[in-house]
Amino acid sequence: MNYADLFRATLPETALEIAALLVVIVDLGLLRKAALKTRVAIAALLGVAGCAAAFWAVYVAGSAGLSAGDDLLLSAGGFTSVAQAGILVLTALTLLLLIGSVFTRHAGEYVAVVLMAAAGGLVVASAQDLLVIFVGLELLSLGLYILTAFAKSSGKSAEAAMKYYLFGGMSAAFLLFGFSYLYGISGSTNLHKILLASFYSSASGGAPLLYVALVMIAAGLGFKVAAVPFHLWAPDTYEGAPAPAAAFIASVSKVASFALLISIGTASVHLLDGVHELRLVAIGPLPKYLGVWIPWSLILTLLAAASMVLGNLAALAQISVRRLLAYSAIAHAGYILLGLAFFSHSNASANAILYYVLTYGLTTIGAFGVVSVVERATGSDKLDAFLGLHKRNPLLAAVLLVLFLSLAGIPPLVGFWAKFNLFAAVLGVSAGAVPFGLVALALALSAVSLYYYLQVLKRAYVMQAVDESPIKAHPVTMAVLVAIAAAVVALGCFPALLQGWIASF
Amino acid sequence: MSGFPILTLLTVLPLAGAAIALFSGKHARAVTLITTIASLALALFVWSSLPLDGGMSLVERVAWAPSLGIEYHLGVDGLGALMLVLSAIVTLMSVDAAHRVHHQPNLYFGLVLVLESGLFGSFTALNFFHWFLFWELSLIPAFFLIKLWGGTRRGPAATQFFVYTMAGSVALLLSFLAVFLSTGSMDFGQLTQLASTGALEQMVTAHLGPVTIWLAIGVLAGFAVKVPMIPFHTWLPAAYAEAPSPVTMLLTGAMSKMGVYGLLRIALPLFGHQIAQMRTPLLVLAVATVVMGAWAAAAQKDLKRVFAYSSVNHLGYCLLGIFALAVPASGAAAAASQAAALNGVILQMFNHGITAAALFWFVAMLQERTGGHRGIDEFGGLRKPAPVLAGLMGIVLFSSLGLPGLNGFVGEFLIFRGVFPLAWVAATVSILGLLVTAIVILTVIQKVFNGPVAEHCVGFPDLHHDERLAMAPVIGLMLLIGLVPQLIVDSVNPTVVNLLAHWRF
Amino acid sequence: MLAWTIYLSFAGALVEALLPKGKAGLARWFALAVAVLGLAHAVGGFAAGMGQGRMIIVDVPWVPTMGVHYLLAADGISRVLVLLTGLAAVAGVLFSWNIEYRTNEFFAFYLALIGGVYGVFLSFDLFLLFVFYEIAIVPKYFLIAIWGSTRREYGAMKLALYSFAGSAMVLIGLLAAYTTSGSHSTSLIDLAHAGLPVSFQMWCFPLVFTGFAILAGMWPFHTWAPTGHVAAPTAASMLLAGVVMKLGAYGCLRVGIWLFPHGLDPWGFSLIGIGSWRDVFALLAVIGIVYGALVALAQTDFKFVIGYSSVSHMGFVLLGLMTLNQIGMTGAVMQMFSHGIIAGLLFAIVGRVVYERTHTRQLAELEKMHLGKRLPFAAWAFVIAGMASMGLPGFSGFVAELQVLVGAWIAKPWWTIAAGVGIVIGVAYTWRALQKAFFSDRLPTPEEHPKTGWPDLGAITWPEYTGVALLVGVSLFVGLYPRILLDTIEPAVKALLAGGGQ
Known about the structure:
By secondary structure, chain A is mainly alpha-helical. Chain A contains 20 helices and two strands. Chain A has a domain at about 300-505. The two termini of chain A are about 25 Å apart. Chain C has one domain (about 5-495). Chain C contains 21 helices and four strands. In chain C, helix 2 (about 25-50) packs antiparallel against helix 3 and helix 7 (about 150-180) packs antiparallel against helix 9. The radius of gyration of chain C is 22 Å and the shape is globular.
């Protein structure tokens, strides 16, 4: 490895960092005298440009990755590139949503932090080494904590950020602790080597330490994806953070974290590909899933089931739409974890999960966009703030309809296809009673979820409005929301489009 | 299909008339009269074109829904043609009698014509499907005629009438479905053929087990309600009493004959053997109908109810004749008795129809002229103010009693002539019925016509000119048939012989 | 040609949504035009398909990785049901002519629902069928929640959740079948030939069947139906009872029975006379027939009577399906068509003609209103509809019920007897409702009788006349000339029973 390789491999992250610095410089230097709106707009647009550059860089970086010796540090190509590209698109969208918002005067700083967090996300998505994973996660997380606190005039924002930070700090500690055990077992920080070593060690009976490590890591990563029982930060953060930040948290960090989990899964299932010497002939035929996989899969299954159940049931009781979205995020995380728990040898699982998380991210950004418009007009994000939305802003209500129905999984919207794809992948891996039971549970809970999504739509379309004055939204925001809704419909009607793009990497 | 579809024309003509009558407002009665007279002419034409061999003529046959064995199959033999003539005469009489319909006369007459169509349809049908169609269809106008123009307790009466008959119909339907299932045919002719060789019973047993007897009971139940036979008669007194008298004329004159016709066209041909097996209990019921009908008539105070129960009694003779002739073939003498009984039944159907209709016509006149009175004790000494009415009504009453020389005698005579050799016990007990009927009729004559003139009979107007004109043909017919019964018997007997030849007991 | 029914409906829905608010007349006429066009295509497709077997309309790969095709095809059964949808759609628009509140949105949701229904009947790819099935759920919710009456939000939510739960069950079965068949195709034709293992079919069939049967109103999952029907506005009730419940039955037949025929085989043991899923579902169907009828007999709300009668009539459909013989299943499809028309007619009269004028559906109150005299059109239309509903010969219901009864006789005689009891009770509740609502003898008390004469209830409008005439005419025509449908249905049922040949 030399610096040229490093530069090439981290071209996307570099682009983002440069863009971040540029934004700060432009904002602090050139636009000191300009109006807030202009500064926000310029900063956001610069950020988007940075994302675009990084997007191009992802394509250029190819699939070589970065290795130190024979240890892969950063992967590239395949699902990594998909995840990275997805992160960049979603970041760009959250930046566009920023235009027109007034929660902060520090536009340049905000955009810079977003870009740096996104860079962290890119690192997480491609990391193959424990330390690199940790660095990426911290870069991402610290950015997210700051973003949560950005609405300085809101007490809720500060409270949410505090909770998020404390929680996050503790889970980072757990993560590191788990990583240290893994290092202890294997003597390496490379993912592949660790898995190989764990396989041998578990095959020869050295498992307990491994299991403890896995539980710790699950705690750490479960926090990132807001899985039960590590989800307690989510409702408050979703409620307190300013809307563009919440959108970012809900989408990009999820993509990055799930990409990481996919890495682990892929590495596990392809563990013995290319390994020709088998020193443990005595243990008989090789199991399909090796070493660390069985306990890991079990842990993921438990997290998935708990998240699905709690997320959906708790959402039923919410009167704040943001908290509703938070619990629904927990539920969706549960579905995705199910896909991770039953991981296929082929690309099917990875593709399905990426499809789900990307489209979910897209939809969530749209949802937060709508919520932010309503909040700005009515001052509240409670269910009743949406009363009579179809009269006050028909286009916004239509967007809301499309997005929420997609989250519920109603065809022909993309959310349905994503769920179907994911569950088909799960059942394709294993058609036994347990996966079936879990898929059945997931579908039953989807039916439950329809109830609470319909509650919001009911307010928007059915019930009488208290206040019938029109709600105005910033044209850029509306354009973005309409584009997202259109994409949700189009991708739902033609699922092969996105699938094909994912598979093309 | 041979030649001009006269029977279809006959059935459709009243429907067309009904459609016109509905929109004719005040002229509905005139339209109806014209239609009924035209139908009578057609029916007489049909009667006159009967062949000499007693078989079916004017046959029309078109495939309708072959997969279900449903054909549009019409035809008449002596029995059917006689019933057509009867229906036409009775309907004409009924329309004549209804010269003061208070409200919605167009609807009233429309319904009457639909009912006539139903009668024609069921007497010409030779396939179960549309026989059943007309059977059920005739219930609707009858129900509404009672319900909308009837007396004070018309609601329950109409409902009871409808529900009872429907229940019987369902039993009929189910049994017929079973027959269809076993044989694949709904055609009366075909089924009679199968029954006469014993094949029907074999097929039913092969398909469904030994249930033929239950099917027979189901079919009998349907007709037993319609005729009616004790103990299914309880709907009749209320319905006859509450219906406006012209409607009662229809009910007793024509509709009750549908039941007897059904026994002759369907029950005996198809289930002759089963009926022969159940002969004794059936005879008991028939005798009960005869005797109890008469007895109950004697106990009534309302003239309409007197004649209602008297109708039950008269139709009981038909039942007696029908069940008595259900004996296995045993020689020429028995065959002669069977022929006599069957001739008698058919004649009784016709004669009772005319007589009962005329009776109720007179009751209608009595009611009208005294402002609604129809109690037997409310009249007295009508002979003085209204000698013509008394005389003509007397003739009709004596016909009902069965006085030789009038039409009522012929049918009853033939029935007894046939039943005595075949079931002398039943015949003997039924004589009681004759005796009691005589008492009833004489009582009526004595109370209504003789004795001191009752208060509201003082200014009792006698028959008008046009009423005499209307009554004359009817009375004339009664006398004619009473004195020269060959007019009918000559055309009916070949049919009787033909039918008996095909029936197997 | 038939596929245009789908596209026109959805396009129409979109245009309706974009129509300017406040122009109710434009919205109505446009909706009527779209519905009539759809009907024209349905009739055309029906006529063109006479004597043909299964015809493929469109077959385009949609999601190649999963082997999902956008596959539209029609056999006899599909064509008949598409025709029903067309008729119900036009009738529904006519009976919604008086809606003034958010008219264009009403018709937008309405047309979207119709489009979804057309889609289900024409889909021959399992995934596509499921997509259209789910698409139909959302417009239903809004139609009831916004324009409905009694407890509309509750009724709408119950309907939506029950439907969704049923479809979730179906989705599981779908996924299972897809992964088990290994055929890498979701085409119904391929899956029917895939030869799924019997043990798999044994549990997948009841799952999928129940999932669809929930929407068909099978006892004991029927409780959404009366509530939903009563809550819904007239046109929605007509569609719900008339067409949407048939979606469920169609799914039972097309997916449940066709794909998993061995799920109906005997288990090898029997419990109180029940030895297979066929016995179970037949029993539930029979219970539905009798229970629905009995409960209808006890109702005090006119619309509830009709709602429960729908449950009872759908029991006939399910019973017919379970006979697994030619005549019984033909009867089931006939009953789907017949009941679709008749239920539409009944709800139209009760909802549009009576309720919108009298503002009450309580039989006790209608008794006092002398509707037989004041609304003779409604009274006589209900007489005819009632006769048809009772299964009087001459109307479409008779032929259908006759076939189902015969089919049931062949399969298991005691089913027939129970069904016959249901028919008798059917006569009773129809007659009771008729009497109480229109021909009651009960005179109003002095307090109830208005001093200035009965208020005018409003003349019958031309859309109502047209709608009633259309539905009565169709029912009569099919009743008197059943061949027009039988000739199309019978070959299709035969092919399906033979194992999806063709």
